[in-house]
Automatic annotation (TrEMBL):
Residues 370-414 form the DUF3696 domain. GO terms for molecular function: ATP binding; ATP hydrolysis activity. The lineage of its organism: Bacteria, Pseudomonadati, Pseudomonadota, Betaproteobacteria, Burkholderiales. Signal peptide: none annotated. Gene3D superfamilies: P-loop containing nucleotide triphosphate hydrolases (3.40.50.300). This is DUF3696 domain-containing protein. Residues 24-355 form the ATPase AAA-type core domain. It comes from the Bacteria. InterPro entries: ATPase_AAA_core, Bact_Antivir_Def_Nuclease, DUF3696, P-loop_NTPase, P-loop_UCP034888.
Amino acid sequence: MLTEIQLKNFKAWRDTKAVRFAPVTMLLGTNSSGKSTLIQSLLLLKQTALSPDRSIHLNMGGDEVNDLFNFGDFDNVLSAGVEGEARRFELAFKFSRPDSERVTQGEFSCSYGKTSSGAVVVQELKLGTEGFQLRVLRRDKGAFSLVVNDEVQPRGKGRDYAPERSIALPPPAIVALGAEGPLVQDLSLAIRRELEELRYLGPLRRKPERDYVWNKSSPGDIGSDGAKTMDALLASALLRDGNQAKVLDGVSTWLKRMKLADRIQARQVGRSTRYELVVSRDGVDANIRDVGIGVSQVLPVLTLAHFAAPGSTIVLEEPEIHLHPLAQAVLAELFVETSRKRKVQFIVETHSEHLFRRMQTLIAQDKTRPDECAMYFVERAQKQARLRPLQIDEFGAVNNWPEHFFGDSVGEARAQALARASRMRSDRHG
């Protein structure tokens, strides 16, 4: 689970400071305020960790098939106005792993600069765990030095010590670290796993098809647009692997709680190799293409919540899109209950007042605690983003409510009352 993140000189963020991540973390705020940038920083590190090129320092994207996001070049992500030797940006996070792992907690921090050729290059990499920290510093002519803890002299220096994919070191560097080499390898592996187990679902989800060809296997992920949702549901319904129907049943349960459907089921189309997804409601069965768009758009959200492996971090942008208010509110219950039951983490970027209000209610009902959820309001101060942690007490009350957080509902009610009174007076005298 990710426990903390910090960005410096990254797009609209000069310095986020340390941002605490909880089992359920919500990012709220105005459009183009910087919410998505927090998520994008994690996607940047994930696509770097999964890059086929071991020598790459940071994978800025461009591969439409394999990359999650195209960040452009160094100057596209560096905060505006950063000049001189300060022309670097930094990405950092902390994490905790299950007790069964060799590395149970750790931290990653890396600052990046630009070479004369325009390439993004590591300037300083920090990898740490309990009682240990390694710094990898870029020196002249592309050489890197290895510094362990507070040692004055580096363990080694050379061009063949350059970091790989920002998170690991090549064999010569591991050898130079001596007894600490295996620990660094374990730490790099734990960081890689944390990034690999990050599952992202964006706000633009693919519309469903009337039927699908299925290759009789389970996908590794449902994709950033939910394209593999049907494959995951078919695998749940039809593969006999000991987990049969768990995903399908879980999705059906939440659709019913949202009052969107009674259940969903997968059916073979005749005797062909194609399958359809059928939505049942009030005794009527309908193909997924023939029901409201809200069902098809929330389906990837519900599927991912039950399909992602325990220990995963699920990152969602606007999960509430096309949902009516009740269904939006029930999403809060999904995040809280699923996080506890399946041991998955949710990081949610949302504009939904109904979702946020239900989170407050769940805290007030003692169904979750303030330490199990973290809520932030992101706003823009001129060219820079600013993050405000919302102080929520044990009864769900926000103690530092931002001005016009969800509009002025009290002001709207007052304006309606005044308008009604004015029109009634006018009608009486007319």
